[in-house]
Each structure stands twice: as structure tokens, then as C-alpha cells.
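Board notes, transcribed. Complex of a protein with iron/sulfur cluster.
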Amino acid sequence: MGDPRGFLKFERDKETDRPVVERVRHFREFGEQMPKEKLQVQASRCMDCGIPFCHQGCPLGNLIPEWNDLVYRGKFDEAVARLAETNNFPEVTGRVCPAPCEASCVLNIDSVPVTIKSIERAIAEHTIAHLEPIRRGTKSGKTVAVVGSGPAGLACGQQLARMGHSVTIFERDDRAGGLLRYGIPDFKMEKAILDARVSQMIAEGVTFRYEVAVGDAVLLDELLRSFDAVVLATGAAVPRDLSLPGRELAGVHFAMEFLTTQNRRVAGDTIDESRALSANGSRVLVIGGGDTGSDCIGTSIRQGAKEVKNLELMPKPPLVRMPENPWPEWPLMLRTSSSHEEGATRDWGVMTKRFVGEGGNVKGVDCIRVRLERGKLVETEGSEFHIASELVLLAMGFAGPNLSVVKGVDVTLNARGNLNTDQDGKTNVAGLFAAGDNARGQSLVVWAIADGRRVAEGVAKHLSAGTALRAVGN
Ligand SMILES: Cc1cc2nc3c(=O)[nH]c(=O)nc-3n(C[C@H](O)[C@H](O)[C@H](O)COP(=O)(O)OP(=O)(O)OC[C@H]3O[C@@H](n4cnc5c(N)ncnc54)[C@H](O)[C@@H]3O)c2cc1C
Ligand code: SF4
């Protein structure tokens, strides 16, 4: 433990964001990192609790008090190695994780947790520009196919390669990353860090095969015959739809269509702008809160939307934690993202009734106010209203995994329509595993990485070559 009185001497502090007027002019990241000296002070606030609840809060079981102490002492190289033991991509979680660790930090009883996420990011930044491959001497002679290169597939593939297995990652897109690449906007996470990790993985022996849709270009059955094990890490990208009158109107789109187009623009891809989605000059209505809705808001504002409104079906959450939702539970309260701060008008307890159009184009939506009564949403009579909009983005989450990947293979699903797996990630089909959102349901990056790592251990057991992996390096 660094400074036993650190939490009494120093206030919580965190990274600041560049001013809104400046950051909405571009798609780059806008968080200003804290200087190392300030971070060391923040790390000294960690009390090194006898029972560190932050470990349990973090799905990866990051050894937070240990690397807080190393940062406090200025031992960044050792902190990098400690963090690498539990997290393959701290540069990613240090940017986009909602930090359940901070919610469960003992200092959060007083709402001033240790700045864990900023410290994690700073540790990751220490080496991201010069990542070295981590190689294990002996090759197992076993081959594994990983389908999907989102955080679950990348983490699983990297762990297995470091154990000595030959890993091939099949990805239907033209670049690796899954939703990290084509969902999360660059202003939250620039993609150079993904490229750095992919280069590291290639140097570690992982083969990437892009633009190969398994279930189409290659059948899963063929992979099962050609590889010793197959891991499906294909995400849960089937969007939830709003089947209402007027849904067919031009200008009503799924959020991912909009976000992917913008990420491709930033990546320098050729876009047919005469057909591509843009919020420029439009009144944009984003239906659905959450990360996807918030990302649509930030993207619309940067594209030059005339105005941006955001609707949420559920009632407005409380501004503070309620007594029935005590620490160390995840606090169910109103969250305001950096995109919300940039100028969206938010409204809660609103149900969309129909899309209204003219000449085949959407012109607005009819809505009604709803309230929760005994767990059910009830419409408030006489509360109908209309919102004018030329671009309506549907961001109501995802219904489940796309099952085209398992075509021809009889894979069991669970009650929620996700791939059914045991603790090791095994499905009912011999040699077939699943990791990430396709087995868990729509979730978080940190869970996808944790699942990828857990399933890698399950695959290793299956291949009878599993040795406990304690990664050294970065
Ligand atoms: C817009 C948006 C913003 C988000 N923001 C955050 C955030 O800020 N913080 C956070 O923690 N979480 C966020 N999430 C959630 C997070 O991105 C996901 O939980 C996470 O990416 C899931 O990882 P995954 O590896 O399981 O799947 P994915 O990231 O979805 O990756 C699946 C990969 O499999 C590929 N694939 C699918 N089918 C096939 C096939 N048949 N053949 C070959 N390849 C295939 C896909 O192309 C994709 O690359 C966000 C989600 C969205 C949509
Ligand atoms: S991965 Fe997320 S939960 Fe874990 S330490 Fe980092 S910010 Fe906290």
C-alpha cells in the first residue's frame, strides 16, 4: 500500500475532456490524460483493502490495488506486467469500460472512488506504442479456429496463441475489432490502438483471415473437421426493431448502419456519399438510451445535425443512488455521457407509436407518454405528441446472435436465444466453443475480454495442453 493516509489527504481527480465547442469539430478522442505525477497521487488514494471489492467489480479480476501501488511508486513497467496478467487490452477498457470496479471501490461508499479506469489507461499508454510479442517456446501442434475478431475473439485467440496453439481468426469484415472497430466511434476510441494489438498478435503467430463469413464462404462443419477446436465469437448484432406503421419510410435506420458508415469515413474508406447516411442539416431523433444511442448522438452532432433528440422508454432514473440499491452494487442512476453533454435533448417515459412521412420520407414520429405501474408500462391518456425529424435512428439494443454462422450444425440455444455453453464455453457440439456476446447476450467489452480468456482456458483443457497462463510483458 502506497500511502496509508492518501485517501484522507487527496481529493479524487480524473481526466478532463476538451471543451464541447472544440471537440465536436472532429472525430478524434478528446480526453486529456493526467500527467504521471497526478496519477501517482490518485493511485495513493487506494486503501489496499483487506477484501478488495474492486477485484470482484472488475469482470477480469484485475489486481487493482497491486498496480495502484506500483503506479504510486512510479514503477510503470512492473504495473504493465501486472495488468497484462489479467487484461489483454487495457488500452481499450481504459477508454470505454463503464468501470464497475469504481462502483464497487470501498471509497465509493462516499462517492469518491479511486480513479481506477484513468490509472489503467495510463498504465496501458506506457507501452502501447512499442508492444512486444509474447512468445512461448514450445508449440503444441494443435490448431484452433476463432470465428469473429471482436474483443472476445481477439482475447481468446491471443491467449491460445500464447499457450502455444496455432490460431487462425476468421473475420467477415475487412478489418479486425468487431464493434470496437465498426460500432464504437473514434471520438471514444481511435483505432490505432486496435491496429497495434493486431500487429502484436500477428507477431505472436496468430493468422487473420478477413472477408470470410463462416456459414457462407466457409461452412462451420468444414472448420470443425479441419481444426482441433473452433471458437465462435461472433457477437450479438441482430438489432431490435420497432415494427410500427411507417417503419418502411426512408430516413428510419438502425443505429449500426449510421455508426459503421461514419467509422469507415474516418478510416478513409471510399463511401458513396450520394447514398450514405448523414445527419448533416437534419433534425435527428435517436430512439433508445445506452451506449449505442449515446454514440449516435455524438456522431450526429459532429456531422452537423440541426438538432438531436433522444427518447427512452423507461422512466428517468434517479439522480442519486437509492437506499434499495446500496454499495457495492452497480448504482442504478442517471448517466450522462460525454455525447449527451454535447447538446442532445433527452426525454424519458416516451413510447413511439408510428413513423409519419411524406413522399416516402420520414418527417417525424407520433409518441405518447408512459409510466411504470406494478412493473408494466401504462400509456398516459391525452399525452400524445409529435416530434419532427428527418433522420430517425433505432438504438434499442440487440435481439441476439446471427445464427447463419452455425448453418448445417445442430447447436443448442439457451432460453434467451443465445448459444448455450458450459463454464468452459463448450457447446453441445464436440470441439465447438462460444465466447462473448453470442453466448452472454449483448454486454460490455470488459465481459467479452473476460469471456474470451475463460473460454481459451476451456479450449486448452479440451486440447489437453492447458498450462496455466501467466503472461509476462505487455
Ligand atoms: C455502438 C455500440 C457502442 C458500444 N459501446 C460500448 C462501450 O462504450 N463500452 C462497452 O464496454 N461496451 C460497449 N458496447 C458493447 C460492446 O461493444 C460489445 O459488448 C462487445 O464488442 C462484444 O464483443 P464480441 O467479441 O462478443 O462481439 P463483437 O464485437 O460484436 O464481434 C463479433 C465479430 O464477429 C464477426 N462475425 C460475425 N459473424 C461472423 C461470421 N459468420 N463469420 C466471420 N465473422 C463473423 C463480426 O464481424 C465481428 O467482427 C457497445 C456496443 C455498440 C453496438
Ligand atoms: S477493466 Fe473496467 S472494471 Fe476492470 S479495472 Fe478496468 S475499468 Fe475497472
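The radius of gyration is 23 Å. The first helix runs from residue 6 to 9.
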